[in-house]
Write a structure and sequence with these properties.
globular, 37% helix, single chain, 13 strands, 7-stranded parallel β-sheet, 6-stranded parallel β-sheet, 14 helices, alpha/beta, 365 residues
Length: 365
């Protein structure tokens, strides 16, 4: 009898965030590649357009769209889903009472950040309430909750009593993430220089952009800010000005796809990560994968993820560290020490490795 791992892929129908969509697609593809003998991967998706992941054996279409499904599942209404081994790359899962011992039903969810608890003012109220509600359901009904770092697992303890059900499985850069063949044209279209200092985020306090701008101010480089929330571009430029970076040196970019991000990061002089947030640092991992020198605020997450792949300093030392990075061979290509360290560290993260861990979690359950 074939054992099926049923993966919730709502993010491939109606993504709530591009990183969650990429993670869901990458993990699903890797799960197919890592499928043990006698097993298969199936998909659970809400109503809507869905491009199937190659190798997925079967797709269960739900009767409602994502928004309606999310609301129903928050209330524990999961008719039409079915049981079995269910894995979600997010908190979106049919979390209800089930019998893991006798029926072999199991449900595992994933939590990538704790902003709904640690920085709720930076999210829509509806998103905060939904995430908190789904974590409460996970406490009651999830067989395991996956987080990407041990640091986040420790933080999660103060918000939910999950005990030994927490599992740590790191995320990764998108498979094949690298500078596209038209990188020069992309940078030209975006209006950014080949060499620059890169930051990521918006004006929320937990993004730490002000500290990043202060660190970049003494350099001669333009500052490119990626992942700017739509509509906050001018606010980011204004924040830069109050932090010592002239407006004509700042490029605030929203809505970049993976190709544009890779084009910007690939030739960057440095990527500055000033946020102490306990979330999985998607852009740090992407920067390291491209061999971009990383200068990060010393936090529990950065210590675990960056490790020896970049420079870790207190916020007060960020400016000096950026200057050091830019004078430490960062512009000399692959021979630069920080570029080599970053690329070497990035090899610790892969979706293939994550998929193997996911299969093992379900086997252990």
């Amino acid at each position: 009898m074939t054992v099926s791992l049923r993966v919730v892929l709502d993010q491939l129908v109606a993504p709530t965030h591009p990183d969650l969509a990429l993670a869901s697609q990458s993990l699903a593809a890797a799960l197919v590649e890592a499928t043990p003998a006698g097993c298969s991967v199936e998909a659970i998706v809400p109503q809507g357009e869905f491009a199937p992941v190659q190798g997925v054996a079967e797709t269960r279409r739900l009767p409602r769209g994502r928004r309606e499904t999310a609301a129903a599942w928050q209330l524990g209404v999961v008719a039409g889903v079915g049981g079995g081994m269910i894995h979600s790359p997010t908190l979106m899962a049919p979390l209800i009472r089930h019998d893991r011992i006798n029926d072999n039903d199991q449900t595992v969810v994933t939590l990538w950040d704790l902003r709904a608890w640690e920085a709720p003012d930076e999210l829509p109220r509806a998103s905060v309430m939904w995430e908190r509600g789904m974590l409460r359901r996970a406490v009651r009904h999830a067989d395991a909750v996956v987080v990407p770092t041990h640091a986040m697992a420790e933080r999660l303890e103060s918000h939910a009593r999950l005990g030994e059900r927490v599992r740590v499985i790191a995320g990764a850069q998108p498979d094949g993430f690298g500078a596209p063949s038209d990188a020069d044209a992309r940078r030209r279209d975006l209006g950014v220089p080949r060499a620059c200092v890169v930051l990521a985020g918006g004006t929320g306090a937990s993004d730490g952009l002000a500290a990043g701008f202060r660190a970049a101010a003494p350099t001669a480089f333009d500052v490119v800010v990626i992942d700017v929330p739509a509509g906050e571009e001018q606010a980011v430029v204004d924040l830069a000005a109050t932090s010592g970076v002239a407006a004509d040196r700042v490029h605030a970019l929203a809505g970049l796809d993976r190709g544009d991000r890779a084009a910007v990061l690939d030739t960057a002089a440095a990527f500055i990560a000033p946020s102490p947030r306990g979330a999985w640092p998607w852009r740090v991992v992407e920067a390291m994968a491209l061999g971009t020198p990383v200068v990060a605020v010393d936090s529990d997450v950065h210590r675990e993820v960056v490790l020896d792949g970049g420079i870790l300093v207190p916020e007060t030392g960020l400016e000096d560290a950026v200057v050091d990075a830019l004078s430490d061979g960062a512009l000399t290509g692959d021979a630069g020490r920080l570029r080599v360290l970053a690329k070497d560290r990035s090899r610790a993260f892969s979706w293939a490795g994550a998929a193997e861990r996911v299969w093992q979690v379900h086997a252990d359950l």
